[in-house]
Amino acid sequence: MNPFTPQKLPPSLSSQNWQKITMKVSEASAALAYYNGILESIINPSIFLSPLETREAVLSSRIEGTVTTVDEVLKFEANLKPESILKENDILEVLNYRKATRSAKDWLMRDLPFNFSLICAIQKELLDGTRGKDKHPGEIRKEQVWIGPKGCLIEEATYIPPEPVGLKSHLDNLIDYMNLVDQEVLIQTAIMHAQFEIIHPFLDGNGRTGRILIPLFLWDKKRISSPTFYISEYFDEKRDLYVENLRRISDTNNWETWILFFLEAISVQAKRNSEKANQVLSLYNLMRTKIIDLTKSPYAMQVLDMIFITPILRPPDFIRHSGLEPKSVRRIIAKLKKENILTSIVKPAGSKAEVLVFDALFEIVR
User: Fold this and answer.
1) Are residues 94 and 157 in the same domain?
2) Given pLDDT bands bounded at 50, 70 and 90, which one contains residue 131?
3) Given CA atoms 196, 202, 207, 209 in this order, what sign does their dihedral have?
């Protein structure tokens, strides 16, 4: 098997079944538009839906072999350390994923271009201080790599990405394609993601970087009002098919199967995301009334926002992030515990702070 040479974009799709593709585009567009309507009804979706963002980071990282859960990540942030260094490394990779996503959003909000510098910045942040830190983060690879069973020789590879010498021209073509304004955006997104994975420009982090780009690209193209679209659940469930359909492009130039698969992923996950967002929104409205009535505090809304942003927390962190007086926080927490809104998962002991969980939100996120 020789290194693959990617087709120049846009690919020729004249032989594809456009009736089938058009139907899928229509279905995915409608589901995405409905989800976006929910996003537009939320004051700050990137904060409000942050537990779902953490879940996306967990699932996308799991596709690449990282093994952790939303619970473990949020407990780690509440200073509950895992038992092993291996588990901690997995958690740090998930936190890097979330941080890289947020940094990329800030980049685009400053009206900086959607270019390869942004992509390099995403990949560099993903690998910061983790197991890929020695694989030249943020740099285009200068050596040949191959994909196959762990530890396999190049002769045993299932796919060999392009040679390093031609990477720059492939990437320039990809960026030019991403900047086209006359494309159907969902098909353009499908092709963008596939071509990035085919090019495989980095020594590590290509899969995660490529999945981070999907909501950012949809946001940049004005198809969603916030880059809070979570697609990795579908890819994780259909992992073998995800890889197989990408490989069909390099094996037989079969773009149709990949595009249809990607559009189905958008459609399914838009519906799932809508359901989750509606559940979070309903819970928020319910808790707003309940907490205001229960605490009769002018700080009720700050408390409400805090437990939605950080559903596992320690009172000292609550005090630090909310800026409220410790006495007020302790009084409010006592009332929330009495009503079982917050549950203690770690009791205070000496200098060790109590750890609390907002179970109702966790049930939705799980």
Assistant:
1) yes
2) confident
3) negative
CATH of the domain at 256: 1.10.3290.10
Domain count along the chain: 2
| CA distance linking residue 70 with residue 362, whole number of Å | 9
Question: Does residue 344 register a pLDDT over 80?
Answer: yes
How high is the pLDDT of residue 320? Answer: 81
Relative to beta strand 343-346, strand 355-357 is: antiparallel
Q: For residue 133, what are the domain limits?
A: 18-268
Q: How confident is the model at residue 310 (pLDDT cuts 50, 70, 90)?
A: confident
Q: How many CB atoms sit inside 10 A of residue 174's CB?
A: 22
Q: DSSP assignment, residue 11? A: P
DSSP H helical segments within 166-299, as ranges? 167-178, 185-199, 206-220, 232-237, 239-252, 255-295
Taking Cα atoms as reference points, which of 1, 2, 5 lies closest to residue 200? 5
**Residue 313: its pLDDT value, please?**
86
* CATH number of domain containing 322: 1.10.10.10
Could you tell me the CA-to-CA distances from 88 to 91, 117, 129, 132 in Å, in that order?
5, 29, 12, 14
Tokens describing residue 287: 């808790």
- Number of other residues whose CB lies within 10 A of the CB of residue 140: 17
- pTM equals 0.92
Total length of the chain: 366
User: Quick one: 328 and 246 in the same domain?
Assistant: no
The whole-number average pLDDT for the span 145-153 is: 89
Position 221: which residue type? K
Chain segment 234-271, per-residue pLDDT in tens: 999 999 999 999 999 999 999 999 999 999 999 999 99
- Over the range 246-282, which residues count as b (16 or more CB within 10 Å of their CB) and which as e? bbbbbeeeebbbbbbbbbebbbbbbebbbebbeebbe
Question: What's the pLDDT tens digit per position in 7-26?
Answer: 999 998 887 788 899 999 99
Question: How many CA within 13 A on the CB side of residue 165?
Answer: 1
Does 277 reside within a domain?
A: no
Show which of 268, 287, 307 is a domain's final residue.
268
Furthest-apart CA atoms within the chain: distance in Å: 71
Query: Is pLDDT larger for residue 252 or for residue 365?
Result: 252
Both 28 and 123 in a single domain? Answer: yes
Return the higher-pLDDT residue of 82 and 189: 189
